[in-house]
Amino acid sequence: MRSGVTIDAACDLPHDFLLQHGITLLPITVTVDGETFMDDRSPAETRRFIERKLGHRNHEAKTASCSAEAVERLFLDKLVLHYDCVFCLTITATRSAINDNVHRASYRILMGYREARSAIGATGPFMMRIIDTRNIFAGAAPAVFEATRMIAQGHAPAAVRARLAYVADNSYGYMLPRDLYYLRARAKKKNDRSVGWLSAALGSALDVKPLLRCYRGDTGPVGKVRGFESGAKALLAYTARQVREGLLVPAVCLSYGGDLSILGQLPGYTELRDACAATGVTLLEAPMSITGMINVGEGALTVGFATRQHKADF
Known about the structure:
Elements: E1 3-8, H1 15-20, E2 24-26, E3 28-32, E4 35-39, H2 43-52, E5 61-64, H3 68-82, E6 85-90, H4 98-118, E7 127-132, H5 141-152, H6 157-169, E8 171-176, H7 180-189, H8 197-206, E9 208-215, E10 218-226, H9 228-245, E11 251-256, H10 269-279, E12 282-287, H11 290-296, E13 301-306
Helix pairs in contact: 3-4, 5-6, 7-8, 9-10
């Protein structure tokens, strides 16, 4: 059985990883001050956005998830012709309409795939499995990584689906923002109360940053730090400790809203890199999606890994 993976563009993973595993992207359309970007994790498009310096508070921006009709066309025109089963992983349904769009498209896809496949002489049924990673940005990476690993090992679709649901329930996505005013302004437009006005004001005056966590679809602060550098050190050291204690999926993903070379300069990065090397854990480094930078601001750091339920300790 030929199995494939599809993700939406807000799942932060390296471009090389996506190419290596033949992962198909569900793009997101981003409009900033009338200028349109196609967020499909293309390095060139991401670089164009960063160079334009559009992830700042004085810009008007909106995003549009891949529509149900576009998902249907992608599957019937391409994916049902190349695969017998496709695992479609999305960021948490509490933050995006993409999961709902994929579900709505799935009914028409499953009704129409036979005609498309018969035209190329393909026999047998087509299966589509939709997985809500229950996380955002780098926090969606563990489930995607596990999907590619299990498919490569030849596991049956039922086993892959069950495992991915378990990983999604135990995935943690942490974020350290740079600009709280920008984050709050974007959150307000989405009626999101994760970061209040008082926190933003204090952060600006005292350089106090919240450490935010997404877990099982819920996002909120789990700690505060003084300054971005100190916050990065605390977050990366915390992640290194989780790596040494053992993860459910042997991968950690870092994403950054800007030039990736900055990651290696952050306090705590070397400790995390060494912990991953010592334990056989893959350290993935990805630029934050354009969608992510629009919603949380440039310069934000996110970390994703899967481990057993625990209390955040910062």
